[in-house]
Amino acid sequence: METVPGWEELAPGVWSRTFRAAGEAHPVGRFVPMSPAEAAGAPWFPARGGIPPDRRGPLPEALGRLPRPSFPLDPAAVTAERVAGRLVVRLPLPPAAPVYGLGLQFFRLNQRGRTRYLRVNSDPRQDTGETHAPVPFYVVDGRGAEPPLPSYGVLVHTARIVTLHCGSTVRREPGRPPAPTRDRTTDPRWQATPPSDWVEAVVAGEAERLEVGILVFGGPDPLTAVRRYNLFFGGGALPPRWALGFWHRTPARYRDAEVLEEAREYRRRGYPCDVVGLEPGWHSAAYPCTYRWSPERFPDPGRLLAQLAAEGFRVNLWEHPWVAPGADLYPRLEPLSGSHTVWGGLAPDYTLPAARAALAQQHEREHLDLGVAGYKLDECDGSELTAHSWMFPAHATFPSGHDGEEMRQLYGLLLQRLTAELFWRRGRRTWGLVRASGAAAPALPYVLYTDLYDHRQYVRAMVNAGFCGLLFAPEVRGARDAEEWVRRLQVACLSPLAMLNAWASGTKPWSFPEAEGAVRAALELRMRLLPYLYTAFARYCLEGVPPVRAMALLPEERLPADPALAARLRAADDQFLLGDDLLVAPLFAGQRERTVLLPEGTWYGLESGEAFPGGREVTVAGDLDTLPVFVLEGAILPLCPPLPHTPQAGQALPLEVRHYGRLPGRLLLYDDDGETLAYARGAYRWLELGVDVGPDGRRTGYAAPEAAEPGPGLAYRPISWRMLG
Ligand code: GAL
Fold first, then answer.
1. Which residue in 225, 229, 547, 708 is deepest, having the highest Cβ count within 10 Å?
2. Which of 343, 378, 380 to mutate to test the pocket of ligand 1 (most atoms within 8 A of CB)?
């Protein structure tokens, strides 16, 4: 193991160093805020002052299998200083290297040259860095550096708001002549952001509570740095199989009979649906919340849930954290809550075990016992950027000692963990939606969403989320016309979570009759891709590979030889990889064709099998019925029938196995029971499907014999092989 002075190697290729404003010592009895990793319950992390090695949990084995990098920075160049109520950590940044990450960012991919204020906020309407899930984790793409260098990631680990200057600050250096300047009046090369080769990470507050962990994740390539981050924090979340089906959220004022009727309408019309989401009206009162079923609208929730379950639907409940004075929970949570209310409700201090236990017991009894499958954790982000201001202030106080700034940064993480544990304790997986998250969150079984609605921003946010262990749902709510409706649904169906959120609009997939064929095709494609998607998520869980990822995470051999084209490909934010073999190039409303930057290799149209030589830009046309999806040469794509809902363990599932191109291919298809945590104890298997290519070019498909044996999950039956391209 390489020794890096001042840094501890916590895991292979993960180094840590803690900086404190109040000095290096750790005074006994001093309050130290919870770290994001603690809030998220990440199984393996450096907590307050470091966890002794004998008390650290097991590391995912896959971490040890990643290539072993060298420490990517000059250790002596990383310094910290205390300046007027702030702790400033300085880290070198290789010249010209792009900087990716920083959480759920809607406005840009490369953050180099920007100052980002990484505060949790529900209205990321401006390119400031504020967002539902800001993550002070950045990935430096060393391939774009001058000269090229290994890539790596850095996490600024703290509960406080981080202002991250990503190559946007220039210090005077004593003894060094000032950098040359240009005259703006006459020189068009003048730039508003002067080049800087430093990152400055700043947290503000009382010296006593300023403690920042810097974690460095080695590459050598950007994807390996991201995988290391994901695996270090427990690996990506594995959804239950049903979570990969289609989700529909019913209007907020619906009563039980209307919910049931709407669900049944999916079945009658033959549209797939796995999850029905109930919005605020299921509570007896919401904003603030009671968490109790409305006696008027849902007099017998147990019966409704049983009926829905019998027809193949799971139920997801909307809630937010602010507890109504009329809630049964109020008296118990009252002494365990913050100094300020939100919408008249309590803001419980969920860093306290007693507060967590109170909510957990109520939810178990009144929701989980009836069969509720998961939650949508809304409004835990707060806003000041619009006409509305709602959230406890940064100066709020909480019984644990946290202040409002820290609590707001941690709230989404705390709620995800608290609610996920309700299901984990029963040995079951859950999957839900959340509107605030942060660092150390890959293992939390939640997908982010937003009230913003710009479709291009949605795609960019989804791509950006994959740098930082986050997932994003580009939910569909409404559309101006049939074309926009189709384009949005097509993208949603090729995303981590395919959902129609009709809480206010009352829309249904069939709301635009002229688009029925295209919408049905999009939802059916989602269902047909189920085995492929489940495998992509298993790779996220077990190997840290994000299921949806940016072009910047492509391996070196897929980048075009032409450096300018390679740089453009890495910068693309309107196309993405879904799993290992699919490249999705969304068409947005108004577009009939678009350019796509294809990585090296030959790519094939998903349905047409048409070949496109890669390493170049191509223009593709798309009628309303199709979204351009390209399949990599040699890929094996297992497709199942478009079932009305996802299959249960033990069910036989016929597969159409496709092979694209002339290169032999091999796929390991993941399978487990789809519902429980048994996979974490090894109860899963990888089924091999492959295609051999003979000397005459003839392609022959094979499935390893165990594919036909009963396993913990589905009985796959490869019944047809299609050779395309
Ligand atoms: C919003 C949320 C919507 C919907 C609504 C219900 O803030 O983003 O998806 O749940 O609350 O009031």
1. 225
2. 378
Query: What integer best gives the mean pLDDT of the chain?
Result: 94
Pairing of strands 162-166, 114-118: antiparallel
- 3-state helix, strand, coil split of the chain in percent (to 5) is 25, 25, 50
Closest by CA position to 558, among listed 543, 542, 544, 572? 572
CA of 506 to the centre of ligand 1 (A): 13
Q: How far is the CA of 139 from the centre of ligand 1 (A)?
A: 32
What is the CA angle 451-457-462, rounded to 5? 90
Q: Is the CB of 279 under 6 A from ligand 1?
A: yes
pLDDT digits (tens, 9 = 90+) for 342-353: 999 999 999 999
pLDDT tens digits, 502-531 = 999 999 999 999 999 999 999 999 999 999
Does the Cβ of 451 fall within 6 Å of ligand 1? yes
With 0.70 as the threshold, say if the pTM is over it: yes
DSSP three-state, residue 424:
helix
Question: Mutation test of ligand 1: which of 250, 451, 497, 499 has the most ligand atoms closer than 8 Å to its C-beta?
Answer: 451
Tens of pLDDT, residues 286-311: 999 999 999 999 999 999 999 999 99
Q: How many residues does the chain have?
A: 725
Q: What token pair was written down for 492?
A: 């949603």
Structure confidence at residue 178 as a pLDDT band (50, 70, 90): confident
Residues 480 and 491: their CA atoms lie apart, in Å, by 17
Question: Which atom of ligand 1 has the smallest separation from the CA of 477?
Answer: 9
pLDDT number for residue 51: 44
Q: What is the DSSP letter of 289?
A: B
| pLDDT over threshold 60, residue 718 | yes
- pLDDT of 32: 82
Tokens representing 339 are 């100094």
Residue (of 512, 508, 474) closest to 491 by Cα position: 474
Residue 381 DSSP SS3: coil
Output b/e per residue, 668-707; b: 16+ Cβ within 10 A.
ebbbbbbbbbebbeeebbebbbbbebeeeeebebebeeeb
Distance of CA 252 to the CA centre of its chain: 26
Q: Which two tokens stand for residue 355?
A: 């507060």
378 CA distance to ligand 1 middle (Å): 7
Instruction: Band the pLDDT of 105: cuts 50, 70, 90.
Output: very high
Structure tokens at 430: 């859950």
CA of 367 to the centre of ligand 1 (A): 20
Task: Return the ligand 1 atom nearest residue 379 CA.
Answer: 7
